[in-house]
């Protein structure tokens, strides 16, 4: 267990021996709808430090039917220019986005402001019918400076991004799915199971191939195709590549042999019937 001795105040960490390839991190400030404060940011940094050394799939969710209602407005109200230049929230969201293994955001209820930006940093987003996701920052006299101003355009395109960022549009679950901001909608009681099923599908892949593919996917366009070729060179030498390809060939050969045996048996039966 990676977090057996941890004592977080704003996060709940779930690990299990039967799912050693992942952790489940729950935002846990239900009294303020999981608003992201400095302590939560600090604790998320602690989680990232562990996952950077010991890569695991991470499922992120909220508690009490809410993912995260945004940054803690009481703290945000007191922040000044120096705080903005420190990139308090943007720094942790970038770190989460750059984790070696995929991050799945399981979104229920509100995912607004900083909560939405945290979701944008994930590799996968799934939601419930009650999801409300968007960035109302301009209504508070600030901008969405922790990733939405550039990630959102990549995720949903410029027109929808401007609706959200400049006109304060908040998307419901069906709208979010229609613009591919989320990929699945599940009842609240099934959300975590769906997240684990997605993690199961990721877990079937070779972990090193997943890690390298994620890194190459997020590389700047000018790095391609050289980075693809270098990454493939690493994977071509991995033992997993030889083992998995040999298993594929063996399975394919066994399937062909079984089909040939079945045809031979059928031909024999037909020949005997004609005699």
Walkthrough of the structure:
It is elongated, with a radius of gyration of 23 Å. The longest helix is centred in the C-terminal third of the chain and has 36 residues, at about 240-275. Helices cover about 50% and strands about 15% of the residues. It has a six-stranded mixed sheet with strand order 1-2-3-4-6-9, sandwiched between helices. It has about 280 residues and is α/β, with parallel strands linked by helices.
Q: What is the compact description of this entry?
A:
This protein has a six-stranded mixed beta sheet with strand order 1-2-3-4-6-9, sandwiched between helices. A three-stranded mixed beta sheet has the order 5-7-8.
Helicity, as a percent range: 40-55%
Unreliable segments (pLDDT under 50, ≥5 consecutive)?
A: none
Radius of gyration: 23 Å
Strand order of the largest sheet: 1-2-3-4-6-9
Find the structural class using helix and strand composition: alpha/beta
Spell out the helices and strands N to C. Answer: EEHEHHHEEHEEHHEHEHHHH
Q: What portion of residues belong to β-strands?
A: 5-15%
Separation of termini?
68 Å
Largest β-sheet summary: 6 strands, mixed
* Rough outline: elongated
State the oligomer.
single chain
Give the strand tally: 9
The average pLDDT value, as a whole number, equals 95
Count every helix, treating DSSP H or I runs of 4 or more residues as helices.
12
Organism: Arthrobacter hankyongi
Pfam families: ECH_1
InterPro entries: ClpP/crotonase-like_dom_sf (IPR029045), Enoyl-CoA_hydra/iso (IPR001753)
Protein name: Enoyl-CoA hydratase/isomerase family protein
